[in-house]
Amino acid sequence: MATSTVCALVIGCAACVTDVQSRRIPNWLTFGAAGAALVFHTVAPAGGGLLLAAAGWFVGALIMFLPFALRGLGAGDVKLVAALGAWLGPMNAMWVALYTGVAGFEQRNGAVGWAYERRTD
Hints:
Layout: H1 3-22, H2 27-43, H3 50-69, H4 75-88, H5 90-118
C-alpha cells in the first residue's frame, strides 16, 4: 500500500474517532493533514507533486462545498475530504466524496428508521 494511502487511512480514522467523541473534526487535524500532504507530495520521491496534491485538495473541497452550503454537513467534513484529496489526488478525492455521501445517506436513513421504530403512538 502506498505511503499516501496509509496516511489518508490514519487521518480518516483519527477524524472518525474525534467526530464520534465530540461531534467535531478539529482544524489542527484537517489543516495539518492538508499541509503535510502538500509537503509530502512536493519532496518525497514517491509523491505526485505539489500540483497533484493541490488539485486533490481543490476537488475535495469543491465537491463537498454544495452540501455544506445547503447545510447538509459541517465545515469539518469539507476540510477533511479536501485533506484526504490532497493525500490521494483529484480522482480519488471524487471517490472519497462519493463514498462519504453514500455513508452519510445510509447513516441518516438508519437514524430515521430507528426513530420511527422507537416512537410511541
